[in-house]
Design brief:
This protein has a single domain, classed as Spore Coat Polysaccharide Biosynthesis Protein SpsA, Chain A. It has 11 helices and 13 strands. The strands form 3 sheets. The protein has a 9-stranded mixed sheet. Strands 2-3 form a two-stranded antiparallel ribbon. The radius of gyration is 20 Å and the shape is globular.
């Protein structure tokens, strides 16, 4: 089946990061480091490694520092060059030339669905990725690339799913449907944060979506919830009913870095993969285990 190439990714970054206060009081949560790389850069690098050509940041008030991170910093570059710190200079220059970025302001916090809808004029009439920056997924190949391969094969929208404990289903959008191939589900319905007693499954939608442009029409027609927000889940449910939606149980490890424990596990996982940090960190963790500290 011939499909349009996915070249753009939407990354909503307008949230306040209240779960990580007080660290996020004056620093955007997306700029908190995963070891020594800002979390948002980890997400962008996933896009680059998957062949995405343009990033659309959905920003909010006080989020200009995220755009600045991917821009040139002539004063810093000049200082590093003058001091002969060419290795650091190369890293800084690499960030500013990584990928083409566009920023679109979400003027009111009206939900994830509204944030995605804000990208309509920039995305245009083509399929696109949505990546939630709270979800760091360590995977090889990257999770986004895995989804693109599913899309190229079946030509339908794709959402990542994973099993969660029954007591946690009320914190997620939950899919209902049936498995029709290894790791693949035909999504029939989606329910936003259901009570465990009525949840159709324990398969939760995780922060990666590959969506057709018709999703913008569904979001435009969507009814706000009791909080006045537009839920992406409602538009996805309509997509599943009227067209098709694939649930993909991705290969990799997901870390919710909007949560304090998830933030810590993401840092540990990424540090363990590094040649300059992994061996010493393993020794430290083993020593703590021997001391019965862990």
């Amino acid at each position: 089946m011939e499909t349009k190439e996915v070249q753009k990714a939407v990354i909503p970054v307008a949230g306040f990061g209240t779960r990580l206060l007080p660290a996020t009081k004056s620093v955007s949560k997306e700029l908190l480091p995963v070891v020594d790389i800002p979390a948002i850069q980890v997400i962008v690098e996933e896009c680059i490694e998957s062949g995405i050509e343009e990033i659309i940041f959905i920003t909010g008030r006080g989020k200009g520092s995220i755009e600045d991170h991917f821009d040139y910093d002539y004063e810093l570059e000049k200082l590093l060059e003058e001091r002969g710190k060419y290795d650091k200079l190369e890293k800084v220059r690499k960030i500013s030339s990584m990928i083409r970025t566009v920023a679109v302001r979400q003027k009111k916090p009206l939900g994830l669905g509204h944030a995605v809808y804000c990208a309509r004029d920039v995305v245009g009439d083509e399929p696109f990725m949505v990546l939630l920056p709270d979800d760091i997924i360590t995977a090889d190949p990257p999770c986004t690339k895995q989804m693109l391969e599913i899309y190229e094969k079946y030509g339908q929208g794709v959402v990542t799913v994973m099993e969660v404990p029954e007591e946690d289903v009320s914190s997620y959008g939950i899919v209902g449907g049936e498995s029709w191939a290894p790791e693949l589900y035909r999504v029939r319905t989606l329910v936003e944060k259901p009570d465990p007693d009525i949840a159709p499954t324990n398969l939760a939608v995780i922060g990666r979506y590959l969506l057709p442009p018709v999703i913008f029409d569904y979001l435009e027609d969507a009814t706000p919830d009791d909080s006045g927000e537009i839920q992406l889940t409602d538009a996805l449910a309509r997509l599943a009913r009227e067209r098709a939606l694939v649930g993909y149980e991705f290969e990799g490890m997901r870390h919710d870095i909007g949560d304090k424990l998830g933030f810590l596990t993401a840092n540990i996982a990424h540090a363990l993969e590094r040649h300059d940090l992994g061996p010493e960190l393993r020794d430290y963790l083993r020593a703590k285990l021997d001391e019965d500290v862990l």
